[in-house]
Design a protein that fits this description.
Number of helices: 20
Number of strands: 12
Largest sheet: 10 strands, antiparallel
Strand content: 5-15%
Length: 639
């Protein structure tokens, strides 16, 4: 057996995609590409500051007229928007490619990687532009950071550049991680999360930059009232910002959206409710009446186009996604009940908004997963999913209300709201820790009976119907799912299993058992996620022998991530734990920097910061004395 495997590996080694890092040649090429792009941006930015390059200012002025913002905010925001669209498109295409085709021959052999890399470089470029476009010797906003003598940078630009730099750092770290621990083949790999988080949190910097640019525009405008067009532009900017934040928060749900979830299902309502709590509470507090619905409409436009292009145009696996319309309606109803207290009592609005999302919003998303969801939420998820979803919605709403109260230049958060970010993050960490725990029952076996099936139209090779006879009735009741899946064929197939007797299940559709396909059945109950392989091909790069779809065979049930992540090396010990801890520390430092930026902008304006007497007086006025209607949020001018 060993000799046969060794001979087979020698025969196909050259054709096997690498399973532990890219070729050195590709790393050098990718590094040079990134270095050239970065050098070009720095050259343009410094040329602009020295007065040798003028067209950046011309482009910024044009963008500023369209967005009613100064050039140093408008052009970076345009660049950032285009870059984030490229990055998120590349992400969903990349996940779909890996799901249907498997590993890459190298990072440059995957076209989706170019969009991700260009997107991250574009995000960083947007930050650099925001740092360098303000005129030398001037402060673009009262909270500007001094970088050098006569050089002041807007806080938002600094946050964008830092966030994008964190995301870019994920590229080399990802290759190093794969070399150490193999290809993890999961969206939730540590370095993958670093890249996703870095890109997504650029939107926080964008929100700060919007506020700084808006204040500069208001000062230039003076006492002139906003025109109807200017009001619509401002509302649209804020709603799109919140909608973009919703898109960013949803990227972590990709494993559930594509149907290859490797973690407890309770994570799904946790992530959906938290995203809704943060983004929609923030949207309603900043964009005013209808802001939550406008944010969701923008989110649905982006997600709908991504799905259309990736699945229908490129023919890759289709991803489902949360609807959020019920959550938006819930937020709007909570705001309608509170009236102007939405702006003067942000703590109360956070509680009301979070509770509405965690009940009405949760119910609508629960129903939506049963209409269009690969892993629908069922009664087996109760009461766990409902409780955790409710807590996540309230935690997210506190963060959303705190962000809005800080970034709309209202007084610093009063009372307990000032502790909302830290408390909410700690609550989420506890719930994430709870969800990460998995119990793997010992001694479970499955007797597989594979019978030939008719090959589906348009397919080739061997397909089988499989009967699974377990030696236990553990998964007979209260299971969250029982599925057959096959991936990387190229293609992706997922279907429900049908229970036909005690401990006995059957596939409802044939599954492939040939070529490069990897086929398995999997079960989820409580915190147990167990599976058994039906067929796995010879993989010379790992190396791993073929697991054939024999007519009848008995195999142990194992934690299903071991089967799904066949290429990964789990025996890292302390080194693996240190790697996770290091990347966790990096992520926490990024969140800390973003919190610092938001806190800096929330500081009331003072004369030392160049504020006018009217602005100082309004900033010191108690919230209850402000003139704010339920139809219009407080603007920087109100502050």
């Amino acid at each position: 057996m060993t000799h046969t495997l060794f001979s087979s590996i020698l025969a196909v080694t050259e054709a096997a995609p690498p399973a532990g890092g890219a070729a050195l040649k590709e790393i050098i090429i990718a590094t040079l590409m990134g270095g050239i792009a970065f050098g070009g941006v720095v050259f343009l930015a410094l040329g602009h500051r020295s007065g040798k390059i003028h067209w950046l200012q011309t482009a910024g002025d044009f963008a500023g007229r369209q967005l009613s913002l100064p050039a140093w905010a408008a052009l970076p925001l345009v660049v950032l928007t285009g870059s984030l669209i490229a990055a998120v498109f590349g992400l969903y295409w990349d996940v779909s490619l890996h799901l249907s085709k498997g590993r890459d021959a190298g990072p440059l052999a995957n076209p989706s990687h170019y969009f991700i890399l260009v997107g991250l470089l574009g995000c960083f470029s947007a930050g650099v532009l925001a740092l360098t476009m303000p005129k030398p010797g001037t402060k673009p906003s009262p909270w500007s950071v001094k970088l050098a003598e006569g050089w002041y940078a807007p806080v938002g630009g600094l946050l964008i550049a830092i966030s994008a730099a964190f995301g870019l750092a994920g590229f080399p770290l990802d290759d190093f991680w794969h070399r150490m621990f193999g290809q993890d083949v999961t969206l939730w790999g540590p370095t993958h999360l670093l890249m996703l988080t870095g890109a997504g949190l650029c939107l926080i910097g964008a929100s700060v930059l919007l506020i700084e640019g808006g204040l500069a525009t208001d000062r230039k405008r003076g006492n002139r009232e906003l025109t109807r067009q200017e009001k619509l532009i401002r509302t649209g900017r804020r709603a799109m910002s919140a909608g973009g934040l919703l898109v960013a928060l949803c990227i972590y749900m990709g494993e559930f959206d594509f149907g290859i979830a490797q973690f407890q299902q309770v994570f799904h309502p946790l992530m959906v409710m938290f995203a809704a709590g943060v983004a929609l509470t923030y949207a309603r507090s900043t964009a005013g009446r209808g802001g939550a619905i406008l944010a969701v409409l923008f989110y649905l436009l982006v997600r709908g186009l991504l799905t259309l292009i990736v699945s229908d145009v490129f023919g890759r696996p289709e991803a489902s996604f949360p609807l959020f319309l019920g959550c938006a309606i819930a937020v709007e109803l909570a705001a309608l009940a509170m009236g102007s207290r939405v702006y003067t009592k942000p703590m109360q609005f956070a509680i009301a908004s979070g509770a509405a999302i965690g009940t009405l919003g949760l119910a609508t998303e629960w129903a939506w997963t049963n209409v269009w969801g690969i892993y629908p939420w069922t009664s087996a998820l109760l009461p766990e999913g409902a409780i955790i979803g409710f807590i996540a919605a309230v935690a997210g709403a506190f963060i959303g209300a705190w962000m809005a109260n800080s970034l709309m230049l209202r007084p610093r958060p009063m009372g307990a709201l000032r502790y909302a970010p830290v408390a909410s993050v700690l609550v989420m960490m506890v719930m994430i820790g709870y969800g990460l725990h998995q119990y793997s029952p010992k001694g479970l076996e499955a007797q597989l009976t594979n019978t030939p099936a008719a090959t589906p139209p348009g397919e080739t090779g061997k397909w089988v119907n499989t009967t699974i006879k377990l030696n236990s009735d553990y998964f007979d009741t209260d299971r969250k799912w029982a599925k057959s899946i096959a991936w990387q064929g190229p293609g992706f197939v997922v279907n429900d299993l049908k229970q036909t007797g005690p401990g006995t299940f059957e596939t409802t559709e044939p599954i492939p058992a040939y070529g490069k396909w990897k086929s398995m059945v999997r079960f989820h109950k409580d915190s147990s996620l167990m599976g058994v392989a039906v067929f796995e091909p010879l993989d010379a790069a790992i190396p791993a022998a073929e697991v054939p779809a024999a007519p009848q065979v008995t195999r142990d049930l194992r934690p299903d991530r071991v089967i799904l992540q066949r290429e990964a090396k789990f025996e890292g010990g302390w080194l693996t734990n240190f790697g996770y801890f290091l990347l966790f520390a990096i992520a926490m430092s990024l969140l800390g920097l973003l919190a610092w930026g938001i806190q800096r902008v929330s500081t009331p304006l003072t004369e030392e910061q160049g504020a006018t007497e009217d602005e100082v007086e309004k900033a010191s006025r108690p919230p209850a004395t402000r003139s704010a209607s339920s139809a219009r949020p407080l603007t920087p001018r109100d502050a």
